[in-house]
UniProtKB/TrEMBL annotation:
<feature type="region of interest" description="Disordered">
    <location>
        <begin position="58"/>
        <end position="85"/>
    </location>
</feature>
<dbReference type="InterPro" id="IPR013780">
    <property type="entry name" value="Glyco_hydro_b"/>
</dbReference>
<keyword id="KW-0326">Glycosidase</keyword>
<protein>
    <recommendedName>
        <fullName>Alpha-galactosidase</fullName>
        <ecNumber>3.2.1.-</ecNumber>
    </recommendedName>
</protein>
<keyword id="KW-0443">Lipid metabolism</keyword>
<keyword id="KW-1015">Disulfide bond</keyword>
<dbReference type="GO" id="GO:0008456">
    <property type="term" value="F:alpha-N-acetylgalactosaminidase activity"/>
</dbReference>
<keyword id="KW-0378">Hydrolase</keyword>
<keyword id="KW-0458">Lysosome</keyword>
<dbReference type="InterPro" id="IPR035373">
    <property type="entry name" value="Melibiase/NAGA_C"/>
</dbReference>
<dbReference type="InterPro" id="IPR013785">
    <property type="entry name" value="Aldolase_TIM"/>
</dbReference>
<dbReference type="GO" id="GO:0016020">
    <property type="term" value="C:membrane"/>
</dbReference>
<comment type="similarity">
    <text>Belongs to the glycosyl hydrolase 27 family.</text>
</comment>
<comment type="function">
    <text>Removes terminal alpha-N-acetylgalactosamine residues from glycolipids and glycopeptides. Required for the breakdown of glycolipids.</text>
</comment>
<dbReference type="GO" id="GO:0009311">
    <property type="term" value="P:oligosaccharide metabolic process"/>
</dbReference>
<dbReference type="GO" id="GO:0019377">
    <property type="term" value="P:glycolipid catabolic process"/>
</dbReference>
<dbReference type="InterPro" id="IPR000111">
    <property type="entry name" value="Glyco_hydro_27/36_CS"/>
</dbReference>
Amino acid sequence: MKVGSSQQAHAGPYSEGAVFQQQTSTSFDSNLATTSHCRVPACPRRCLSNAAAATGLVTRRSRRSRPPPAGKGGAGAEPPISRGRRLPELPRVFNPCSRAMKLVACVCGLALVACALALENGLMRTPPMGWLAWERFRCNTDCKIDPQNCISERLFMDMADRLADDGWKELGYVYVNIDDCWMAKQRDASGQLVPDPERFPRGIKALADYVHSRGLKMGIYGDLGTYTCGGYPGTTLDQIEQDALTFAHWGVDMLKLDGCYSSEDEQAQGYPRMTKALNMTGRPIAYSCSWPAYQGGLPPKVNYTLLGNICNLWRNYGDIQDSWDSVLAILDWYSENQDVLQAVAGPGHWNDPDMLIIGNFGLSFEQSRSQMALWTVLAAPLLMSNDLRMLSQSAKEILQNKLMIKINQDPLGIQGRMILKEKSHIEVFLRPLSHSASALVFFSRRTDMPYRYTTSLARLNFTENAVYEAQDVYSGNIISGLAPEHNFTVIVNPSGVVMWYLYPTIQLKKG
């Protein structure tokens, strides 16, 4: 593998004061037809050939599937804002059937059908970062016994405050994502989804307004099926357009669509149909699909060409648990199938190995550093599921490592891969980065003692005729004068990592 090019400037060492830019959707306005009130997808060339036709797939239940709800329930419309934190108004979502949409239809003609099925929303050009409720708080709905930790507007407002006030937002952690169990047990009289009136008394729109007022974005959860995995109202095929409009009206910025209680045919129809429905709302809403996780995650059951056209990210393996064994199981699956998975990831469409559990109860300090480094080299979303109100300083330092985040958010968006698996139980991962740089992770599966691992860049397939410099991502130390043929040694702690940000400093003439 060739690393670097003499035609590109080297990346150089990273410093705390350095400014790094994060690409946003504003860089991709050429893909959007825009008026002052409506953003609708234009018709990129690939839409002409990629009007998705879903194939039949085998369905399996989610690992957190529960029985359908029992008993009576119900809720009316969302109550007005009453008291508590001030929640600003968000402009109403404008009618997607605007003159801008009609103009696109006229210009694109029949290609509009293909366009509507392709996501092309200009979002998530780098992996999303933020916070997600599920792994840490699950479906805790008992706010009388546990008011601080139940799934409620209070919890999400608290997390928004922490992201905004504790230095997370400035680093790119901007999503506050609701997961399952936020809904009332029944839809309202008009068939609309409504939040639980006791746990979300101000409603979801007011909560989104508050999140936006803190300079953040809000995500929400739905399920393409009769029920959510937790037994709350799902989104059946005839409710997709209604729910997409509801989410847009509330000001939602991201939708995670699960797949409990749905058939293979319903999933094959529903996931692409939700893409079209979200596009037609006129509001940019990032779309996370759980579809491949219900099909085993691999071709031929999973059509990644289709998936890359309809989803911004997707879950393709089981739910993470608060344990090191769970982290290793996910890593093993990704490594075993990296030839398939690496090829389908990139700007706007990402593999999602699930949440970061750093700061909870199941990982040691070394294991926490390892999950952060390995998720970063996989170009994974950095969606924490922890309690930001009581996070330890060591966990915060791992999650707020600026060089780590720079690597994760690299604009090339290339997913890394395992390149070497040693008998000594050391594994080496590599991720190509922009400006001829690379990320190297030396990961130990040993459980006995720190291991001195000796290798060379040439053995790791660095064949460029250059001299390299490496910056240790965690310590900040600089290692200079690394020629490909020279040996070096790193000391890796049990279940730990050494991670390098590597870049060429001198291009040598070929002799």
